[in-house]
């Protein structure tokens, strides 16, 4: 296919695939020309489906056996015992009686990491401050064995309905959903042991599943996201206990929505970045004329073409 | 802005009695044992939704009566003086159910009725009007319904006689989660 020909200049390739030029320039700045070609090619692939098994409803082995009995071919995901890749299936995987019983949820591989990195414990009070449709909320509940409390905030009434549906289906019992703008979280007079802020973002890490993102956003949209994310993170930190931990993540690859948000907020607040292991690669130290906080190398970037999953940025911080 | 209208409140005595009576009719006493770990809450609206909330969440929910949208397990709903147990309530209490029915079709999950021809074996005798917990293949929970005929009539009934009506618009079968859109 001409559009993915290796000999094509990366800008031509981007153009042929329908990207706005500024996006290619930025990818090249971030990861170089060669890798940008890999990223663009990856984004054209049909992604294999992944599911997260739900121990709150059924032991992993039982669910796997039931799906195999239906002819579904599964592959385990390394280091993610709850994650399964669907290699082949003749049945609609999102409509089986097992699915309706909450034995599993459709969830991208890389979006299983933020909840694990937050590492919620059974008796804690956890704030999932941008929660719908609840992929990560239901994962948090699973990691807590349904003990303790999750307060799941969501601003949109419509999305609250899908959150409710997922929580009920997945057998989550330790969660209270509050339909509210998280910028009002302090009015709830709650203090959280840990917070997950899976911020609304421009989505440039998930172009493989949403190709419209190739040309739907411009630089000023990204800056608007940046401003909003900074505001959301600052408000979230206010509701965090002393020594409490917060995970900030997005499915965007734009440094303005990631490194720059963290840099700006830690400058003015008592947050400290912490190590989260060797997932993906370290976050950027600088981008264009921006230099970020030196601790940002503790945050991680997951590029789609390198991790075979959605693009993600994940940072974990502790409140001093 | 946070609205001032309370939506979540503790169940009152009269409502509690209606719910308890309905449970008593269809479940063994042990059902009340498991329910001791939960508090009953009501979300007021066009219908009164009944939630059972782990007692460990009670203190927090008490702080959020005006803003909470959902809590714990959506157990059922109150319509005037009737209580309707719904999907997750029936799942929670299923082990203590007096009457269970096993079906060989997934049609119930699409809000469709269960016919005589869809029955695997009758393990429990039931009477018209009884609440039945519905299980499908591999012993998977499918939902809840009300018997339209007595089990003794089944052997003589036509294969297309309805045993449980389907309810497309009410959360009684697990297919509801797809119809609701998730
Ligand atoms: C990236 S999505 C969250 C996905 C979710 N964590 C999951 O794993 O399923 C961001 C969500 O934040 C919600 N949101 C945006 N602004 C918000 C605000 N100010 N307060 C609360 N929720 C907000 C959006 O409606 C959207 O549902």
Q: Give average pLDDT of chain B, whole number.
A: 93
Cα radius of gyration of chain A in angstroms: 20 Å
Low-confidence stretches of chain A: none
Q: Share of helix among residues of chain A?
A: 25-40%
Small molecules bound: S-adenosylmethionine
What is the architecture of the largest domain in chain A at the second tier of CATH?
A: 3-Layer(aba) Sandwich
Report the count of strand segments of chain A.
15
Mean pLDDT of chain A: 96
Q: By CATH's scheme, which homologous superfamily of the largest domain in chain A applies?
A: Vaccinia Virus protein VP39
| Number of helices, where a helix is a run of at least 4 consecutive DSSP H or I residues of chain B | 5
What is the CATH first-level class name of the largest domain in chain A? Alpha Beta
Oligomer: heterodimer
Largest interface, and how many residues on either side?
A-B, 39 and 35 residues
Helix share of residues of chain B?
10-25%
Shape category of chain B: elongated
Describe this entry's structure for a reader.
The complex is a heterodimer of chains A (320) and B (182). Chain A is of the alpha/beta class and 320 residues long. Chain A has helices at 10-16, 21-44, 60-69, 97-100, 113-118, 135-143, 157-169, 219-238, 259-268, 304-307, and strands spanning 49-53, 73-77, 80-88, 104-106, 125-128, 149-154, 175-179, 192-198, 240-250, 271-274, 281-282, 286-287, 290-291, 300-302, 312-319. Chain A is built from 10 helices and 15 strands. In chain A, strands 5, 6, 7, 8, 9, 10, 11, 14 and 15 form a 9-stranded mixed β-sheet that branches. In chain A, a hairpin with a 2-residue loop joins strand 12 and strand 13. Chain A is globular and about 50 Å long. Chain B is of the alpha+beta class. Helix content of chain B is 20%, strand content 27%. Chain B has 5 helices and 11 strands. In chain B, a hairpin with a 4-residue loop joins strand 2 (38-43) and strand 3 (48-54). The mean pLDDT of chain B is 93. Classes of the chains: A alpha/beta (320), B alpha+beta (182). The A-B interface holds A 66, 69, 94-95, 97-98, 100-101, 125, 133, 147-149, 151, 154, 160-169, 171, 173-180, 184, 187-190 and B 2, 53-54, 56-57, 60-61, 63-64, 67-74, 87-88, 91, 106, 109, 136-138, 140-142, 174-175, 177-178, 180-182. Bound molecules: S-adenosylmethionine. The site of S-adenosylmethionine has 19 residues of chain A, from helix 6 and strand 6.
């Amino acid at each position: 296919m001409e559009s993915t020909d290796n000999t094509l200049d990366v800008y031509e390739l981007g153009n042929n695939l329908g990207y706005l030029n500024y996006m290619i320039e930025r990818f090249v700045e971030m990861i170089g020309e060669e890798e940008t070609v890999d990223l663009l090619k990856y984004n054209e692939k049909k992604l294999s489906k992944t599911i997260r098994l739900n121990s709150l409803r059924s032991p992993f082995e039982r669910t796997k056996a039931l799906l195999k009995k239906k002819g579904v071919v599964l592959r385990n995901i390394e280091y993610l015992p709850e994650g399964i890749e669907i290699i082949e299936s003749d049945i609609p995987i999102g409509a089986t009686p097992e699915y309706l019983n909450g034995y599993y949820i459709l969830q991208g591989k890389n979006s299983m990491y933020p909840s694990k990195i937050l590492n919620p414990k059974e008796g804690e009070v956890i704030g999932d401050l941008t929660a719908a449709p609840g992929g990560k909320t239901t994962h948090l509940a699973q990691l807590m064995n349904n003990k303790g409390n999750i307060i799941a905030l969501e601003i949109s009434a419509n999305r609250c309905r899908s959150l409710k549906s997922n929580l009920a289906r997945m057998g989550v019992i330790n969660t209270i959903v509050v339909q509210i703008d998280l910028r009002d979280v302090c009015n709830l007079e709650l203090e959280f042991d840990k917070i997950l802020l899976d911020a609304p973002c421009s989505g440039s890490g998930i172009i493989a599943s949403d190709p419209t993102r190739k040309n739907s956003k411009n630089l000023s949209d990204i800056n608007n996201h940046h401003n909003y994310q900074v505001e959301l993170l600052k408000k979230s930190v206010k509701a965090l206990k002393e020594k409490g931990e917060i995970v900030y993540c997005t499915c965007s690859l734009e440094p303005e929505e990631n490194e720059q948000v963290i840099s700006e907020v830690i400058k003015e607040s008592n947050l400290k970045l912490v190590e989260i292991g060797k997932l993906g690669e370290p976050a950027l130290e600088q981008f264009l004329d921006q230099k970020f906080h030196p601790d940002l190398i503790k945050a991680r970037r997951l590029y789609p073409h390198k991790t075979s999953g959605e693009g993600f940025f994940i940072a974990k911080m502790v409140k001093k | 802005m946070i609205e001032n209208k309370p939506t979540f409140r503790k169940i009152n005595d009269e409502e509690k009695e209606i719910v308890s009576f309905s449970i008593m009719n269809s479940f063994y006493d042990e059902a009340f044992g498991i329910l001791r770990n939960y508090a009953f809450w009501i979300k007021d609206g066009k219908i009164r939704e009944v939630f059972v909330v782990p007692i460990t969440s009670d203190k927090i929910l008490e702080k959020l009566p005006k803003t909470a949208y959902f809590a714990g397990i959506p157990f059922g709903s109150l319509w005037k003086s009737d209580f309707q147990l719904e999907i997750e309530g029936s799942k929670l209490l299923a082990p203590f159910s007096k009457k269970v029915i096993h079906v060989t079709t997934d049609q119930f999950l699409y809000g469709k009725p269960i016919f005589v021809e869809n029955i695997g074996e009758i393990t429990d005798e039931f009477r018209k009007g009884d609440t039945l917990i519905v299980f499908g293949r591999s012993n998977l929970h499918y939902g809840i319904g009300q018997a339209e005929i007595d089990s003794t009539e089944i052997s003589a009934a036509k294969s297309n006689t309805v045993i449980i009506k389907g309810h497309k618009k009410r959360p009684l079968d697990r297919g509801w989660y797809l119809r609701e859109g998730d």
